[in-house]
Amino acid sequence: RVAKLAALSYVWSTGSASEYRTRLASKLEEVIESAMKCTKQMGFRYLWTDRHCIDQHLASKTGVIQNMDQIYTNASITIIDAAGDSAESGLPGPSTIPRLPSATASVYGKFITLAPNARYAIAVSKSSTRRGTFQEGLLSRRRLVFTKEQVYFQRRRTHRC
């Protein structure tokens, strides 16, 4: 039986693996903390993160990395941080970082909220410059993308803000 899990796609922070291990003992990065909160709120028990689930000191980690496509293909959902520029940024909403407000207008006494262009926000994000982002996004069945302004849900043929 395959466990239902969420996978996380995010921009790593700088630093060596040995520095990272020291920080891991004291506190996880903000993006991991907020992704864990999001994972739990969606009803999943497991969150897969490459930096935590692949031993960074393992000499044969290349073989594991070559099979990462299976992780994203089999994950129930991939949480994508398209808002942050490091692991310390956190996901806007589930973390202490608030989302940027959307533009609103009043038309004949009714308020209209103008949703920002999520595809543009994703395209210009730092996460879109990562090598693995294309694979992670392409192979994931469902994607929950956090931008600075909104959360964007993508499924093969469905897109919702």
Write the layout of secondary structure elements.
Layout: E1 5-9, H1 17-26, H2 30-41, E2 46-48, H3 50-53, H4 61-66, H5 68-74, E3 77-81, E4 103-107, E5 110-114, H6 118-123, H7 133-139, E6 142-146, E7 151-155, E8 158-160
Parallel strand pairs: 1-2, 1-3, 3-6
Antiparallel strand pairs: 4-5, 6-7, 7-8
Helix pairs in contact: 5-7
Outline the structure in words.
- The protein contains 7 helices and 8 strands; from the N terminus they run βααβαααβββααβββ.
- The protein is α/β, with parallel strands linked by helices.
- The strands form 2 sheets. Strands 2-1-3-6-7-8 form a 6-stranded mixed sheet, sandwiched between helices. Strands 4-5 form a two-stranded antiparallel ribbon.
- Helix 5 (68-74) packs parallel to helix 7 (133-139).
- The longest helix has 12 residues, at 30-41.
- The mean pLDDT is 76.
Strand order of the largest sheet: 2-1-3-6-7-8
Largest sheet: 6 strands, mixed
Whole-number mean pLDDT: 76
- Spatial gap, N to C terminus: 32 Å
Oligomer: single chain
Strand content: 15-25%
Q: Which parts are unreliable, with pLDDT below 50 for 5 consecutive residues or more?
A: none
Structural class: alpha/beta
**Helicity range:** 25-40%
Number of strands: 8
Put simply, the count of helices is 7
C-alpha Rg (nearest Å): 17 Å
